[in-house]
Amino acid sequence: MADLNLNRRDLLAVAAAGAATALTSLPAAHAAAPSAAAQAPGFYRYKVGAYECTSINDGARSFPLPDTFVKNVPKDEVLAAAEAAYMPKGMVTVPFNPQLINTGSKLILIDSGNGIATYEPTKGAVGRTLQNLVAAGVDPKSIDVVLMSHLHPDHTNGIRAADGSMAFPNAEIMVPAKEWDFWMSDENAAKAQSNEMMKNYFANVKKIYAGIESKVTRYDWGKEVAPGITAIATPGHTPGHTSFAVASGGSKVLIQSDVTNIPEFFLRNPDWHVAYDTDPVLAQETRHKFYDMAAAEKAMVVGFHFAFPSIGHVEKDGAKYRLVPVAWNPTI
User: Fold this and answer.
1) Which of 4, 125, 246, 259 is the most buried (most CB within 10 A)?
2) Does the residue 197 lie in any domain?
3) pLDDT of res. 33
């Protein structure tokens, strides 16, 4: 009788021989699939009562952290915060996320993104609002209102297409009255000539709104500026910076625009002053006031510079705050 006692080495040898036989009997494998080399469309739908809302990703910029990105904190401390947030070493990443509100009677786009030509060297990393609207099934011609929170380039340049034409040709353009008055003032522009960033901002507003000044609707704080959308005064980032409460039924979301820049820095550290704030002390006061309100209400908050899809809740954490992102919901 054959010896049926097999040791571990024998079993491994048998298994290897069997695997080799099986492999030789398989049909030839297909060639490897080519890399896609492109990101999927960026849009995410969520409900606020009867309203269907869509977070539209305009892209993100990663760039070397400027020495004065945070003006009142040593750069080493800021770099440590960036590293703690797992940003590329020595870099900072800033996302951009306009919001589309479908009230049933109106399609309202809150901020329009960077525009295709704003940051040419990014090679498509920003200026993605139009393509992501189309991917979401929204024709730019169907937008009824483009509602601006303020007039910094990353929020307003997207009203122009790459050829300079109006990206949303049938939309009413709405701008905070205080914001419009500030940026359209020749006196303010003259005072800004010694500050390169502010000088460029004034020139940009003039360029983007050239020829359509008389068509811009100016709105005031504390009023309903579109169905279910109320303008909230949140100045400091700019003189007329505005946030919005979107309410339908018993539901509400706070669209905070730029109350903070990236939350990893300025929500965790609300007393830090970002370089882009026109009045850093007022912006700091606004952050505390706005986030104390949001935390007390347990409100859902949408941030233009939050990581996509840019929706979460804000909780108090001592003298600081923390963002609790809303879980991705596969249904609406």
Assistant:
1) 259
2) yes
3) 83
Contacts 24+ apart (CB under 8 A), 132-137: 132/41, 132/42, 132/43, 132/56, 132/57, 132/58, 133/43, 133/56, 133/100, 135/41, 135/43, 136/41, 136/43, 136/45, 136/54, 136/56, 136/100
Measured distance CA(109)–CA(139) in Å, rounded: 12
Domain containing 77: what range?
Answer: 41-325
- pTM equals 0.89
The verdict on residue 163 lying in a domain is yes
Has residue 23 been placed in a domain? no
Between CA 17 and CA 222 the distance in angstroms is: 78
CATH number where 303 lies? 3.60.15.10
Count of the separate structural domains present in the chain: 1
Sheet containing 51-56, strands listed edge to edge, beginning at the edge strand earlier in sequence: 43-48, 51-56, 99-102, 107-110, 145-147, 172-176, 217-219
Taking CA atoms, 6 is separated from 21, 27, 109, in Å, by 21, 32, 73
Question: Contact, 266 vs 258, CB < 8 A?
Answer: no
